[in-house]
Protein: Glucose-6-phosphate isomerase, archaeal II
Amino acid sequence: MTPEKMMEYLFNLPNQFKESMDIDLNFLAQYKKSYKNIVVSGLGGSAIGGDILRTYALKKASSPIIINRDYDIPEFVDNESLVLAVSYSGNTEETLSSYEKAKNKGATIIAFTTGGKLGEMANADGFPVVNIPGGLVPRAATGYLFAPVALAMEKIGVLSNVKEEIDETYNVLLDLRDSLNPDIDSDDNKAKTIAQLVKGHIPVIWGCAGTSEVAAMRWKGQINENAKCPAYFNVIPELNHNEIVGFELPEEILDKIAVILLRDDNDNERNKLRMDTSKDIIKDKVGSVIEVQSEGQSYLARIYSLIYIGDYASYYLALEYNVNPTPVKVIDYLKGELALAKA
Structure:
């Protein structure tokens, strides 16, 4: 695949939200009931939607939502649990394993996939399957991997006002796309500017708990996979109790760090102060400090605006390093080795 393929994926991300609203989820109404807990089981690009769902639901859902990135399933899962098995390919071995264990515990399961073994297993076991459009790499399908899940949660009564927020997210991303696309010069393109500042540095992304934490995680993963370089993230206030102390030595390495602060108007006021103070502590010690402000009114629009800027920045950083952002050869190698070991 060419570098232009990833740009095509990025350009079309807003459409994923629009198209997700056309997916027929009426058949899920029969699963409307009160669940003791909700577990989203997935890995990588297939799990990020669950992370967004978790933070989105903090002030909306009466049932706790946790993310499971493992072969196993939490011990508390039982016949009062709802498990959302999410695998874009349908063949993620950890998700398939956790699916079987959730089934054996009597949980209600809803599968979200393009097909593969997960779709086959869920169909055979009589569990509902939400079929999402295929043809993408998982990390480029974040709209398809979040919006249908959130809309399904609305359909079964866990969340409310999801359609309205997804519609706003679609429009905010359309507007952002006009300022982030390759035709816009660096002076007016914040993603290109960020890539140029980060080049030659190790990106460290900071978000805030309950708001931008998932966006920070997404930035880290996208820089890893698209730009093929290390990146790290942490969350305020937790990082103020440990990581902030680690910006003293060695000076020659600190100068090669670029700290990216993700800002949101709905950050806790104390966390805003923590972000400001943390910036003051490190600004003269690291190579650069970059601030990115969210856009939009709803939680979903604001968080996806941060994610979209990071997606584009990771793409432009790949170009700065003259690497193709689309393939992930190391992951493919790992899967191949695991398949051989299993054979």
